[in-house]
Design a protein that fits this description.
195 residues; mainly beta; 43% strand; globular
Length: 195
């Protein structure tokens, strides 16, 4: 948000729900203690100068984004897991070959660890610390792999929707499902290398 209360880089209504808590970027969240480095990477990807990153953040366990309420993994009061999300992140299609920047949007799946607000140069950014799953496709359905998830800070506007995880008793794999699975255009799946 800007100083006037407008959202930075967001096209939809976004708001934190539930009690807010004052924390710092040096705190550990679900064993993730590198938030300052992840914030630096986020701001760099947005073209923001961040020579000094303010340590204070305000966290929330729940938020309203894209017409739905999403819990974080830190929300101990939720009765169902509502923290698995589909993200759409802009990445450089040429990041591996060293050519000029070529932006492309890729779809990623992950889990929200915590929602937080951070100030940089008098702008308030509504962000989320997420764990991005490594996935592959099996018969056109996305499946979570056994590769450890990768931590990333994202803008709340990058969160598109919730999804569910269904385990196959035959293969012990976790399949990703959501209401529009068969009704939307094919996703352009991202991978850990993209982030």
């Amino acid at each position: 948000m800007t100083g006037k209360g407008e959202y930075v880089g967001a096209g939809s209504d976004i708001e934190f729900w539930g009690p807010l808590r004052n924390r710092t970027i040096r705190d550990s969240f679900e064993g993730i203690s590198c938030l300052s480095k992840l914030l630096e990477d986020f701001y760099e990807s947005k073209g923001e100068e961040c020579s000094i990153i303010e340590a204070a953040i305000q966290t929330s366990r729940k938020t309203f984004v894209n017409s739905g309420v999403i819990d974080s993994a830190l929300n101990q009061n939720c009765v169902k897991e509502a923290h698995n999300i589909r993200l759409q992140i802009q990445v450089d299609e040429n990041h591996n070959i060293g050519q000029s920047y070529s932006p492309i949007y890729k779809d990623l799946f992950g889990k929200v660890i915590v929602f937080f607000e951070h100030k940089l140069d008098n702008k308030r950014w509504l962000l989320a610390l997420v764990q991005v799953y490594a996935i592959h496709e099996t018969n056109g359905i996305s499946v979570v792999t056994n590769v450890p998830a990768k931590s990333k800070v994202v803008h709340l506007a990058d969160i598109k929707e919730l999804f569910g995880l269904v385990v196959s008793t035959a293969t012990n794999e976790w399949y990703i499902v959501w209401p529009k699975l068969n009704h939307e255009p094919k996703l352009l799946l991202g991978c850990h290398v993209d982030i």
